[in-house]
């Protein structure tokens, strides 16, 4: 196993993002269409928060909706903004942070994705799934 590999080797570089002016229906659509569970919220290229699919489930009944159904009761989503639901106090890493350090952070914290930020600009996202896939490649 390569101990000095930077997170840039495994992070997602083409990151799907939201703006705090987007609505939660847009967020849910992005989660489902792209089969992802975390979306950074940006202002320009600067990250201001992170929205997870779990955040949506906490405030909605989306988990009770059949996956084949496209209409969700929008009443709950209209009661909140992305800014109110997203995580704001983020732990961030840089693209040169070593994978081992990223794994240590994710193992100790209660979240499953880290924004990768260089010079205050979002350049990627790394998730626990990225880490697991990296480890599987090593065997």
UniProtKB/TrEMBL annotation:
<dbReference type="InterPro" id="IPR046342">
    <property type="entry name" value="CBS_dom_sf"/>
</dbReference>
<keyword id="KW-0129">CBS domain</keyword>
<protein>
    <submittedName>
        <fullName>CBS domain-containing protein</fullName>
    </submittedName>
</protein>
<feature type="domain" description="CBS">
    <location>
        <begin position="11"/>
        <end position="70"/>
    </location>
</feature>
<dbReference type="InterPro" id="IPR051257">
    <property type="entry name" value="Diverse_CBS-Domain"/>
</dbReference>
<dbReference type="Pfam" id="PF00571">
    <property type="entry name" value="CBS"/>
</dbReference>
<feature type="domain" description="CBS">
    <location>
        <begin position="86"/>
        <end position="139"/>
    </location>
</feature>
<dbReference type="InterPro" id="IPR000644">
    <property type="entry name" value="CBS_dom"/>
</dbReference>
């Amino acid at each position: 196993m390569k101990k000095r590999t930077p997170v840039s080797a495994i992070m997602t570089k083409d990151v799907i993002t939201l703006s705090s002016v987007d609505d939660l229906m847009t967020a849910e659509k992005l989660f489902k269409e792209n089969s992802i569970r975390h979306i950074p919220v940006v202002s320009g290229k600067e990250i201001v928060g992170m929205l997870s699919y779990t955040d949506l489930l906490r405030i909605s009944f989306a988990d009770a909706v059949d996956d084949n159904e496209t209409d969700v009761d929008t009443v709950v989503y209209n009661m909140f903004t992305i800014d109110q639901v997203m995580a704001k106090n983020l732990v961030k890493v840089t693209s040169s942070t070593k994978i081992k350090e990223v794994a240590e952070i994710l193992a100790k914290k209660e979240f499953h994705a880290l924004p990768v930020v260089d010079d205050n600009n979002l350049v990627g996202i790394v998730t626990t799934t990225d880490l697991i896939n990296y480890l599987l490649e090593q065997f």
